[in-house]
């Protein structure tokens, strides 16, 4: 059985998000895999099978030596593409907290079918907790949140992300993955 499986075989993802694979800084590392799956040219206005995308990810795991870096890179690419697509007035008013709290709803807008969930919690002023169960690699989701945190944090603020050591990640067999995001001192 493949490592990554769609929760709903009919689920689809909007092409703008799928473009992260072709725009990733590590695109060259997975170009042959994307080509083999017919996903080397993505129409941002089209819908794509989530399972087909997961098949690409399964091949990345099977064939790659830098799997974690590829997944994080794709996640960061998705964040950069998503941010770039926002209208300037929205960007001007968007905060990291506002984005993270809305991310779970946004996930639903970019997909058709059951793709799991992403939940937001604010633990303290600049400490946010993201919890998810999705069919995508944890490191890809880490990359998404890293990318958006880098883009939306207050100017010149440092930040860090870490998986919660008290919870086993989905990739390790847990029932959910918990990520802590800290911004500032």
Distance between the termini: 44 Å
Low-confidence stretches: none
Which radius of gyration do the C-alpha atoms yield?
16 Å
Helix content: 40-55%
- Helical stretch tally: 8
Report on the structure:
By secondary structure, the chain is of the alpha+beta class. It folds into two domains: 71 residues, no CATH class; 90 residues, H-NOX domain, CATH 3.90.1520. The protein is 46% helix and 19% strand. It has a four-stranded antiparallel beta sheet, covered by helices on one side. Strands 2-1-3 form a three-stranded antiparallel beta sheet. Strand 4 and strand 5 form a beta hairpin. The longest helix has 18 residues. The relative contact order is 0.16.
In short:
With 185 residues, the protein is of the alpha+beta class.
